[in-house]
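The passage that follows is intended for readers who have already worked through the single-chain material. We present the inputs for a multi-component assembly, then the predicted structure in tokenized form, and finally a short commentary. You are encouraged to pause after the input and sketch how you expect the pieces to fit together before reading on.
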Amino acid sequence: MTNDGTKPLTGKIAVVTGGGRGIGRAIAERLARMGATTIVCGRSQETLDAAAQAITSAGGQCEAVVCDVGRLSSVEALAARVDKTFGRTDILVNNAGVGDFSRALHQLAPDDWDRIVNTNLRGVFYTIRSFAPMMIKASHGDIINISSIASKNPLPNGAAYAASKWGLNGLSYSVAEELRRYDIRVSVVCPGSTQSELSPHPGKDSLKMLRPSDVAHVVAMLVTQAPQSFASEVVLRPTQKP
Ligand SMILES: NC(=O)c1ccc[n+]([C@@H]2O[C@H](COP(=O)([O-])OP(=O)(O)OC[C@H]3O[C@@H](n4cnc5c(N)ncnc54)[C@H](OP(=O)(O)O)[C@@H]3O)[C@@H](O)[C@H]2O)c1
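Having made your guess, compare it with the prediction:
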């Protein structure tokens, strides 16, 4: 809802990956408050159900759908379900992400590399592959990829995560050029340290860190731009260094 009480996303369909907790949940709550029917996906049914129930109790419309973004069949099933039920997707937020911030790259197990890159980068390829055709058909849409400030800087003990996010930025800038002719905006949001379960952020003052609602606020701004306006990238920093 906006300050004047209007709901600018009424009638819109939004899909938020990793929408059950953390930043994704805050984004889902915000989009639902703005009137969008919001589909939250992730791997844990219980977490998704809790998020959907809270959003619905607050007067929003939300569905929980289990989906592993690292598995193409799972993402394709989600897109088919959304297409069958709603016939459209107006907003896709690629938020699902994992990391390992505990060891140098030479100590990282190959399975951990696969888990991180398959979720953070391949997963976004899979969702765009599955959802973009719906948006192209409608000649309209917003795809928002939640990257990280780690896509701009070195991240010792988080090299696989940083690599996945640097890759995500390259993917985002390129797909933005592919899809803008269809009036589809592909943007990337790069938040700094944010309070969530992703990382303990050792040595940082959590009170100075961003909150998930701060990232949700940026998403809300991106999806309410005028049609001729396209903010392609937002770097979001805590005001004071945590
Ligand atoms: N926290 C930060 O400081 C920070 C800073 C910059 C950017 N980010 C980015 O923000 C995004 C959200 O992170 P967060 O901080 O909110 O972390 P979080 O609390 O750990 O949430 C991660 C979400 O991703 C979902 N997820 C993980 N693997 C998945 C998969 N294979 N398929 C579908 N969903 C999956 C999780 O649900 P399930 O486990 O149930 O699948 C969970 O809902 C990530 O992309 C992260 O890289 C975070």
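Commentary: Residues 17-18, 20-24, 42-44, 47, 67-70, 95-98, 119, 146, 148, 191, 193-194, 196-199 surround NAP (CB under 6 Å). The first strand starts at residue 13 and ends at 17. How closely did your sketch match?
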